[in-house]
Amino acid sequence: MTMTFINLPVRDLTTATEFYRAIGFTGDQAEPAGDTMVLTVSDTTRLVLHLRSGFEAYTGVATPDTATSREVIIGLSASSRGQVDELVDQATVAGGESLGPGTADGPMYMRGFRDLDGHQWSFLHLAG
Question: 98: closest CA among 76, 123, 78?
């Protein structure tokens, strides 16, 4: 089985963990040093949150400023158009920034948000 690990730098580990729990990610496997948190997105996907200093030590480079650049857009599937909207609405209520109404392109419906640290996410549903 293939696992996916999404690693992101965050300013505040506790606040970021609370944000992702509010949109349905589960678990709280903290690393012993206290600068990393692992959350479960799905059976095959984990979100690994790192304090910025730890992320920079791991990568060997400075963390990009998400106010002026995008290092990645993370896309996750949803089971329906309604779930896409529900997940983005939950992210917005938890303090994230909605990127506007959903858009439909053929069988795909997508809607995005930015998390508390400015990382861009989208949820999408593919009909059919």
Answer: 123
